[in-house]
Q: What sequence folds into this?
């Protein structure tokens, strides 16, 4: 008998269900007796013993279904060692629930924060496999996370739609793309959507350079400009400050503006007199059906996870490196972020064709 637990934690994304399907099908076809326990709503379910015994039926027909059949929640890593409001030791509670069910392995699907807790549970002696999910593609140790390309598709479509209206109205349009810490999604959707200016968290922007780029386009007779702005884009004068002051300055800005895009819009309006409109696709970027690439990626990662479980090879994230599924030791990657290198080829190429990064 093989008993595994599954949980999805953090912000959802497309292909969480497809990944779980890959894991369970990969196991069910290769062991005689399998029990799969699904913990509900992320680590909450593991802490408070909220789980369901799942059957083959639960995994049928979910390849194309976005969201997660298990539900999810954000449980900050930094609070994991702190008792809950009733004094419960969360880590101890998670271990007890794992042992009570006599699990052979717990498969955890999630992003960076989730991965840190997965590694903590590994350090505590549990058999853990982690699956890299996030639309942000910011997990260190894997070339790609599932969810990313589905979100790129949606953000690109938003920019595509803005293109037609932008060209009719001769305005400046800003499309705000998800990603507080990293700009992969903005970079890829921005290039795919043919945006003119991309503002990423990794490249602090100079508003005067942004305005120069708009003026240059107008002087050429382009008439409209589209900016793809990451949620975490940061003005260069704030980026210069120390961490604490940076946080304070951003909080102050956010009291005045709903998000950084509105600040950029206001500044452009003031400096150019041009009308600016902001579009925020927001959580639509995490919604809907996974794109074919993500269906394949998540199925492959899931099946590779199953293979590791069958080999009793625990303590790994299943990543994809140069097109091959690889086991990556959790201890080597937990807590690290894969940010966009401002000198990477994609950015150099984008700059060469005239895309501005406001730097
Ligand atoms: O990490 C995924 C992500 O969608 C980020 O791109 C975004 O900044 C954040 O989550 C939004 O979080 P929430 O869903 O909690 O508002």
A:
């Amino acid at each position: 008998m093989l008993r595994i637990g599954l949980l999805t934690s953090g912000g959802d994304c497309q292909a969480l269900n497809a990944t779980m399907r890959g894991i369970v099908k990969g196991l069910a076809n290769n062991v005689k007796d399998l029990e799969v326990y699904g913990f509900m709503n992320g680590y909450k379910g593991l802490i408070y013993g909220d789980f369901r015994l799942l059957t083959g039926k639960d995994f049928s027909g979910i390849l194309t279904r976005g969201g997660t059949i298990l539900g999810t929640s954000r449980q900050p890593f930094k609070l994991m060692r702190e008792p809950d409001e009733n004094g419960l030791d969360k880590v101890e509670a998670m271990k007890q629930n794992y042992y009570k069910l006599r699990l052979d392995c717990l498969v955890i699907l999630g992003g960076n924060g989730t991965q840190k807790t997965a590694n903590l549970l590994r350090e505590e002696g549990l058999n853990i496999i982690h699956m890299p999910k996030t639309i942000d593609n910011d997990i260190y140790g894997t070339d790609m996370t599932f969810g990313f390309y589905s979100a790129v598709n949606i953000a690109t479509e938003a920019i595509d739609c803005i293109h037609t209206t932008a060209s009719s109205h001769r305005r400046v349009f800003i499309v705000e793309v998800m990603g507080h810490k990293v700009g992969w999604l903005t970079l890829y959707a921005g290039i795919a959507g043919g945006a003119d200016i991309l503002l990423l968290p990794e490249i602090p922007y100079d508003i005067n350079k942004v305005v120069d780029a708009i003026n240059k386009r107008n002087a050429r007779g382009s008439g409209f400009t589209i900016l793809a702005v990451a949620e975490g884009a940061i003005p260069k004068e704030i980026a210069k400050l120390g961490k604490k002051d940076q946080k304070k300055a951003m909080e102050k800005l956010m009291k005045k503006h709903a998000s950084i895009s509105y600040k950029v819009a206001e500044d452009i309006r003031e400096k150019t007199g041009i009308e600016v409109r902001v579009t925020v696709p927001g959580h639509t970027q995490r919604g809907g059906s996974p794109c074919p690439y993500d269906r394949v990626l998540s199925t492959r990662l899931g099946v590779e996870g199953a293979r590791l479980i069958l080999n009793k090879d625990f303590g790994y994230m299943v990543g994809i490196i140069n097109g091959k599924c690889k086991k990556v030791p959790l201890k080597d990657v937990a807590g690290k972020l894969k940010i966009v290198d401002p000198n990477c080829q994609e950015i150099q190429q984008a700059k060469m064709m005239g895309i501005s990064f406001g730097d």
In short: Residues 150-286 form a domain with the Rossmann fold fold (CATH 3.40.50.460). The chain has two domains: 2-146+290-333, 150-286. Residues 9 and 114 are 6 Å apart (CA to CA).
